[in-house]
Amino acid sequence: MSMHTDEKLLESMLKESLEKDIISLLSERTCITQREAMDVFYKSELSKQIDSGTYGIQYLDAAYLVNDLLENEQTIVGMYAINRS
Q1: Could you give the CA distance from residue 12 to residue 22 in angstroms, rounded to a whole number?
Q2: How crowded is residue 44: how many other Cβ atoms within 10 Å of its Cβ?
Q3: Do residues 68 and 29 make contact, with C-beta atoms less than 8 angstroms apart?
Q4: Tell me, what's the pLDDT at 82?
Q5: 17, 44, 9, 16: which is closest to 30 by C-alpha?
Q6: 24 CB contacts (<8 Å, ≥6 apart)?
Q7: What local confidence, expressed as pLDDT, does residue 5 receive?
Q8: CA distance linking residue 41 with residue 44, whole number of Å
Q9: Are 28 and 37 in contact (CB under 8 A)?
Q10: Most buried of 1, 17, 30, 49, CB within 10 angstroms?
Q11: HEC profile for the chain?
Q12: What is the pLDDT along the chain (85 residues), one digit of tens a residue?
């Protein structure tokens, strides 16, 4: 395997782990299911930014990113809170 391929594989594994951590934390903090948290995350701008590597956001801590998502994307998260009422 070349260095370039190793770097891509490592980057992919890092993003996958970060996404998993974000979804778990989002579920815990908002009392929604893992499936709902996954839906929220993949509909968010945050997910797109992590995928594209915008501003190196994929290197930030999952807890920080969940706080950011909850603060800046309340509409998406709120859909599930409303449906629970």
Answers
A1: 15
A2: 21
A3: no
A4: 55
A5: 44
A6: 34, 37
A7: 87
A8: 5
A9: no
A10: 30
A11: CCHHHHHHHHHHHHHHHHHHHHHHHHHHHHCCCHHHHHHHHHHCHHHHHHHHCHHHHHHCCHHHHHHHHHHHCHHHHHHHHHHHC
A12: 566 888 889 999 999 999 999 999 999 999 999 999 999 999 999 999 999 988 899 999 999 999 999 999 988 888 776 555 4
Place of tokens 């969940």: 66
pTM of structure: 0.86
Q: Comparing C-alpha atoms, which of 20, 18, 26 is closest to residue 70?
A: 26
Domain ranges in the chain?
A: 3-84
Confidence (pLDDT) at 78: 81
* Residue 59 one-letter amino acid: Y
List Cβ neighbours of 19 (8 Å cut-off, separation of 6 or more): 41, 47, 50
CB burial class (10 A; 0-12, 13-18, 19+) of residue 3?
exposed
